[in-house]
Design a protein that fits this description.
Helix content is about 5%, strand content about 40%. It contains two helices and 24 strands. The strands form six sheets. A four-stranded antiparallel β-sheet has the order 3-2-1-24, with no helix packed on it. It is globular and about 40 Å long.
Amino acid sequence: MIYASLTWSTRIALLCASVGVGLCPPVIIGAESRDTTDLETAPPIAKAGINPTIAYTATVDKNTDIYVFRDGKSVRITHHPAVDSWPAWSPDGKKIAFESNRDGNYEIYVAHADGSHQTRLTRREEGDGYCSWSPDGKQLAFQQFSGEFGSTSRLCVMDADGTNGRILVPNLNVQSPSWSPDGRRIVFSGNEGSGFIGADDVRGLNDEEGDKLFEGGIYVVDTDGSNLTRLTHGQFEDVTPSCSPDGKKVAFASNRGGKPGNLDVMQIFTMNADGSDIKQLTNLQGQNIRPTWSPDGKWIAFYFGSQLPDNDSPWPNHNIFAVSVAKRKLFRLSSGENDEYFPSWYPVNGSRR
């Protein structure tokens, strides 16, 4: 199943899917392309002059864990029969926060970068997830789920040890917070309805009924909960925003440019931090979700899932790609053998970026 707008129920279905065989191999970078039919031809990303370190989620042998790609190799850092997902590097690169349902419902955990010292941070009956670190590493922004299957969620902030949690935005359904590099604001996806809309929610609706459901936008709020501002508008699903390292841009995924009710095709876009100058970066016939910036701001990694039938698509699973922001050149980071998604780029400049 391909993620649509990352509803809670759709996410559970994907993460529990039995996809992938064998060990997750080293990431193999793919081709410069703007069409899925060309994705199999590719030079190594090392020839582009970068050596990325990226944490990501992979489903291998029916088990979903956190992996880290570094120096040409993929290393599994969590080993649990439950679902470990949505990794987020701490600003100094020494820790990774993630979500897991290993204790029943989804909660937020933190571990050292090598996977050791795993510690549970949140303890709520209805669950928490999708976290983002503050630039000083002292706090985490996250989603607090409520309702059936986590159909509604609130933007919350807590200290990095799990204490002093508070609701920051109580009146919007939120998704995928991203802390600004100056520490003053949090960007997130927001929806004023009863929850985020997935592809399954619009089947059988006519065009007018379906269009009314899709009004998810990108918002920004100060870290004290004031100055809530909507940045994107229109009957589209704008999701998974990510602030650039210099704070001047926001990358996000959206179905804008297509039919409002169609979530089969979502692309990666960038815009200025005030919501102006929206530009499309990708043009792949599938869903491109969860952008994450390289620390120098020159690249964006994301995951792609094709909606073509498996026998017609060169990459039927979810796969991680990187696109150069300036030239819009696309390179594949996944092998195509397993489901690999939710990338998080190592945030520190240097040889391990």
